[in-house]
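Attaching the record inline, Q. Sequence:
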Amino acid sequence: MTMETDNQFDSGSPRKFRQGIFDTAHLSPVPLHLEHPYLKEKDHRGMGTKLAYAVIIMALLLACLVSFYGWLVTKRSMENLQTVNTILSEQMQKNSLLHSQTLQEANYQIEMANQQVFSANHRAEFVSATVQQLRQELTSAEQWQDYWWQRAHPKQFESLDSLKAWLAQDDSDHVIYVFGDACLNNYDCDDYASALVRNALEDGYLVSTEIVDDHMMNSTIIGNDIYLIEPQTDEVRFWGKRD
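Structure, as predicted:
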C-alpha cells in the first residue's frame, strides 16, 4: 500500500497525483446555475449594506435639502424683516418729523394765543380803567346836574321847624356888620340878605329878598304862608298868606 501511495505521489505521474488529490467522483454534482448559500448570504448582506448606505445618503440629502430650504426661508424672513424695519424706520422718521412740526406749530399757536390773551388783558385793563373814569365823570356830572337842578328848581321848606333848623346851622349871620363913611366896603343888610339867598340856593331851598321899610330882609314860602326872615339875627315872623 505504501508503494501504491508512493506511486501515487510519484513526481513522474502528475496526472495521477492530481486525480488522487482532487478526485471528486464521490461528491454530488452541483448545478452551475445555483449559488452557494454562503455566497448568497454574502450577497444579501452586501445588498443590505448598500441599501442602508443609500437610505443614509438619501436622508443626508433630504436633511441638506430641508436645511437649505430652512436657510432660504430664514433668509427671506430676514430680508422681509429688514424691509419692514426699514419701512418702519422711515415711517417713524416721517412721524417724528411730522410730530416735531406739529409741536412747533402748536407752540407757535400757544405763543400767539398768549400774546392775544396778554393784549386782551391789557385792553380789558384799559377799558376797565376807562369805564371807572367814565363812572367817576358820570357821578360828578350827576352831582353837578343835581346841583344845577336844585339851583334851577329850588324847593320850599317842608315846615317852619325845618326852616328854623336850617337857619340855625347857616353861618351867613356870623359876619360882622360894617357900615360907615370911612369904610371902603360896607357890609350891611343887603349883603346879609344876598348871602342867605346864596346859601339857601346851595342847599336847594327857595329864599328871596324883600324890602321892608328901607331895610332888606328875606322871605320864603311854606305851603300857603309867607314868612319874613331877618338875615342878621335869623328871626322868623309870619307875613301873610300867598292866596
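The chain is about 65% helix and 10% strand. The two ends are 216 Å apart (CA to CA).

More tomorrow.
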